[in-house]
């Protein structure tokens, strides 16, 4: 059975919107989610979606591994081991690793030109961008799940594999701390909208300033598969490709890029994830018996980024704001990324409560008319809000999951439970189909169906009452 066929009992129909029934068929939902992951399994790694995303994507694999951990922790570790096989010599984990058996995807390996970059792997083609560092968080969670849900022998084997992966995780974090933040500000610099939440209005002003040079005509894989209104516009896509051309010409050399590139943003969401991930990495380092100097480095990356993320708090918008390095100005945009400082463990309880209030307020999970009280990608009361457009309004279960982790980490159990319930109710709705994102007023599934990370977080939510 796929996600479109999850059964509800007849009593479920009388429930208020947003409330999952007591008889939500958890078993059927879990089985359907597991089936999505099985179908998208390419052999040791999982594609994010059946047709729209047929290669391996970096942060998708981290979320997918967390879902897989409940089904098969060894396979979950393999997901990340495979990804890190494509790590560059400079430590970066590319945002995409291409499957050579899918030649007709565009933009493909030629557009990225990783084969010509000395630091890139030789055995596989990759992109040259990065995505938020969810990986150490995933490894730590796999370990916890293996400990809780499998026998001690299995858990020991997973711990050994986590320890073996540690040096690669360490190099990845070092790349982020040193090359993506040469100023030592604690905030990670992103070079491209594809380094996180693609079409978010956070990037609009920076993209608008870019003068696009000559780009040859190109095909769009995405709008053949998904309604164009739910995807980036042609003008936006031109800019994405122009930025890729500039990065390729710079050989993806960070120093060159940071001197010349027109799109340089200190990203609060990525930096907040980096904090949480460093804390997970610190625990993995201990498990791996890493030298004290390395553990000290990880602790200092974490502390520096934690402070920097907290400092990005904006009193007027009550969110953490990115900084556009080209103008030196904060990006005054109301999106779910601004709630991500909640992932920083060292927030005070009062600060965490503030973010939680904002999260359940009129811009996000408390917006008027929502089918389910889930967090929206862009603030509902802002002019940028568009309920069907990619990252500009729809609800993304995977981002809701991330924020749920933040609520739990700060002991906000009741709020976390509310968010989990609302998301599960949405995901269990007949026809929900584990979509990439949802129209928030009608709960219509948008983007791709059978999106792996949506299925993965469903499994984790179901396993974590
Ligand atoms: C989306 O990004 C790709 C490009 O990398 C795309 O729009 O074609 C984003 O949602 C990104 O965050 C995600 O990792 C990827 C695969 O799910 O899709």
Report on the architecture of this protein.
The protein is mostly helical and 465 residues long. Helix content is 45%, strand content 5%. It has a four-stranded antiparallel sheet with strand order 3-4-7-8. A two-stranded antiparallel sheet has the order 1-2. Strand 9 (437-438) and strand 10 (445-446) form a beta hairpin. Helix 3 (73-84) packs antiparallel against helix 5 (135-149) and helix 5 (135-149) packs antiparallel against helix 6 (152-179). It is globular. The protein starts with 25 loop residues before the first helix and ends with a helix. The relative contact order is 0.14. The model is unreliable at 1-19 (pLDDT under 50). The site of (2R)-3-hydroxy-2-(alpha-D-mannopyranosyloxy)propanoic acid has 10 residues, from helix 2.
Show unreliable segments.
1-19
Tell me about the largest β-sheet.
4 strands, antiparallel
Ligand roster: (2R)-3-hydroxy-2-(alpha-D-mannopyranosyloxy)propanoic acid
| Amino-to-carboxy terminus distance | 24 Å
Mean pLDDT: 94
Instruction: Tell me the total number of β-strands.
Output: 10
Number of continuous helical runs:
16
Main sheet strand line-up: 3-4-7-8
Identify the quaternary structure here. Answer: single chain
Fraction of residues in H or I helices: 40-55%
Following the backbone from N to C, one meets helices and strands in this order, namely HEHHEHHHEHHHHEHHEEEEHHHEEH
Shape: globular
Structural class: mainly alpha
Query: In percent, how much strand structure appears in the residues?
Result: under 5%
C-alpha-based Rg, rounded: 21 Å
